[in-house]
Design brief:
Layout lengths: L3 H15 L6 E6 L2 E2 L4 E7 L5 E4 L7 E3 L8 E3 L7 E8 L9 E5 L10 E12 L3 E11 L6 E4 L2 E2 L1 E9 L17 E13 L3 E7 L9 E4 L16 H6 L1 E2 L5 E2 L12 E9 L8 H10 L13 E5 L12 E2 L4 E3 L9 E3 H6 L12 E6 L9 E3 L5 E4 L10 H15 L2 E2 L2 E2 L49 E2 L49 E2 L23
Parallel strand pairs: 2-8, 19-20, 19-21, 19-24, 22-23, 24-26
Antiparallel strand pairs: 1-3, 3-6, 4-5, 4-7, 7-8, 9-10, 10-14, 11-12, 11-15, 13-14, 15-16, 17-18, 25-26, 27-28, 29-30
Length: 542
Amino acid sequence: MRYPLILLYSSIICLLQFGCNNPPVLTDVVNTTAYPRQVLGVDGSNLLLASVKWDAGLASEENVASSFISARYFQVPAGSSAGNHPVRLSNSVGLSANTINVNVLPPSGSWPQPRIEDIGITNMATRTDSASFWLTVAVANGDIDGKVLVDGVEMTTAMYSAIPTDELVAHTPSTYGYPIYHYCLYFALVKPRVYGSTLNVQFRNNTGVTSAGRSYQLPATLADLDSDGDGLKDTWETNGYPAPSGATIDLEAIGCDPHRKDVLIEVDWIAAAVPQNGIWANIENTFAAAPVLNPDGSRGINAIIDRGQGGGLNNGGTVLANHSSMDFGPASGVANYVDFFTYKANAINFNPDRLRLFHYAAIGRAMPGGFSGRGEIFGNDFIMTFTTFPQWGNELAESGTFLHEFGHNLGLRHGGINDGAVDANRHYKPNFHSQMNYRYQFPGVSTDCDVTPDGGLDFSQGVFASISEATVRETDGICDGTNIDYNCDGDTNDTGPLDINSRPGLCPNGGDGINGTSHRDYDQWGNLQLSFTSAGSTWANN
């Protein structure tokens, strides 16, 4: 059930054809430990037109806010006391036989302001110069019964999909800068708007707290519609891409969907730089597990990597001509050097019909400057070049470097996103658990409240509090009050000013030399720049 009309149609069929003559079945609640206002998931059947009973069978029993015409998701009431609360489902026929207890934790800090993560479109009804449509808005920490605002006006809104998370259950949310309890996806019915116009979209929780605005530009014509914002037009993903040569590239056959974000990457390598085979699943799984909600309600991004594996993906995996070093552009005085774009300009390596569709990656021996790789910032090309490093041949290091350089293509920087902020380019930030951080490129990100790599593969969600080196306290750490020895002096008793922007192994002399610098975490997953042909990119049609 992917769109409002399909959901409504399903409910009609349920009523007329099957009569919905069975009570709902409750199998599980995801998660069974939660904070007040947290959105949880329901596993079971006969959930259409069912409701969720909170404190089922008790004097305090109530029907709680749940997802659009189903009991697939529900929200823990804001005033719930700490302890166990029985949950049961009901419909017009009866109650679920099973009851599951949800253990509510005491609130920790104030509820965060909602934050818009992504905006898309589905179900567009067109006119000559305008269209009505369902806007899809993904929101962090949104209430199920909150409202989408367009240009300051509340829209008819319905929540229909979510990503429940238990990441905060073992932590203290009040110690985070922006704790994320859940992500929700909403439909908002928008009446006729002129093609090409720009909307200012906000989200308001039921407490009246409203998110910051986020701009969304409508397509210039219906033919330009890109519902999921991945840079691939809907018509290309359904009818095939009309290539410059006159050929048609069947994107649907390789897994593309107009209502689920897709990223397409072709990868070649030299014989001396064959990557570990396990990296492909690592990269695909990282994107599939991303905290991203698509217009069809699904989670994650579909990373389609052509490394010559077949099934319509037969261009990648080409063994390139050998070199001693490689980089973007020409170089003088470097023996056996190859310009990356010389590889790409050879149609045997990269089919020019793919130019507007695929990122292109080449894995080589080394770079003249000794770096492990390079990626265009908000562009379409990247390289991996570290066969001379001791980390080469390590699956995690190769996976992390691939994600790091490809992340640059998606507008991500070493300390944040492509927004021009000074600290977006700062290295080794302790409160920035991302593959883009040099701390974590090879060993994988930390998955807890310290700065020790734990082998995770991820970009940041922007959850940690900012750190000011002028006032930092090592006993605070980055969350949960976990002590961190920022200046490597063997204790965790120091307070600012401290130069904490330190490279592991070089501390305390590996910082930026500026006591008082501010370090921010960034919401990278919510700010990916997927459409590399858009204005402002470094694509340059090459």
